[in-house]
Amino acid sequence: MMTQLPDYGFNQAAQAAEFLRSRMKTVPVAAIFTGTGLGQVAASAKASWSVAYADIPNMPAPTVESHHGRLVAGEMAGRAVAIFQGRFHLYEGYSPQAVTFPIRILQCLGVRTLILTNAAGGLNPLFSAGDVMVIEDHINLTGENPLVGVIDPRWGPRFPEIAGAHNGKLQDLARCALNGAGAGCRGGIYAGLKGPSLETAAEMRFLRTIGADAVGFSTVMETIAGVHAGMQVLGLSVITNMCLPDRLISASVEEIIATAENTAPRLGGAIRQVLESVDGEARIS
Ligand code: HPA
């Protein structure tokens, strides 16, 4: 029997965007997605309104696995922001189009700056748990792509360029902000896998060999959709555990979450500083 796939097309996103536009005080100039354990990045914002994902029209239905799923609208560094606390993952069984549906809503709203945060395993032996890595580039190993299938031309081109996906200026701003925060700021390549099983030692060695510095189960789908949507994208990975094939350390989900939670205030502060310097967009006041 064929399963009827839910439709995450242009009209569905436009309807969700209209719902948000009519309720938010100000249309956001930037959106921030908080990864595992990083929801408290929202504490760096002055929240004015929030809504459960479940109450936004056409949003993918939550799974048992999903993070709490709340959109917080507010202000950060004088900029109107939308903070998506929790994201949809391929490993939960969502299609790439479902995973990137929030990006399409933001595209309909005219949001131009996309900041994606995640928890990731460190592959670069110079890294340590608690470091923040500015994503310089990514390797898509998920076997998925949100642009497969019929693409509405209103979203963007059939064959978008993806080299240079991670905005250089935003990376510089983030490096500055994170170094100022006196913490281990790293730069590197993020390998995106589907998950949910963590990596074997052979996979860790392979990922390092092909040039990856960190590995995780998110961010790549959203980056591709964001670039396709013409947004400037910044990705920030909190290194929650090390993935060293010759020195295997088991990491529990609880430990990963605890490390991410401890890093969230520093990450929030850095994001605020990045937003302060994002130009070309009017301040609220
Ligand atoms: N692997 C994949 N995803 C992750 C990890 C990891 O070791 N840590 C946090 N997210």
**Mean pLDDT, nearest integer?**
92
Strand content: 15-25%
Spell the H/E element sequence: HEEEEHHEEHEHEHEH
Number of strands: 9
> How are strands sequenced across the largest beta sheet?
5-8-7-6-9
What is bound: which ligands? Answer: hypoxanthine
Q: How large is the radius of gyration?
A: 18 Å
Shape: globular
Oligomer: single chain
> How many alpha or pi helices?
7
- Spans of at least 5 consecutive residues whose pLDDT stays below 50 are 280-285
Instruction: Specify the biggest β-sheet.
Output: 5 strands, mixed, barrel
Give a structural overview.
- By secondary structure, the chain is of the alpha/beta class.
- 29% of the residues lie in helices and 24% in strands.
- Strands 5-8-7-6-9 form a 5-stranded mixed barrel.
- Bound molecules: hypoxanthine.
- Hypoxanthine binds next to strand 5, strand 8 and strand 9.
- Hypoxanthine (HPA) binds next to strand 5, strand 8 and strand 9.
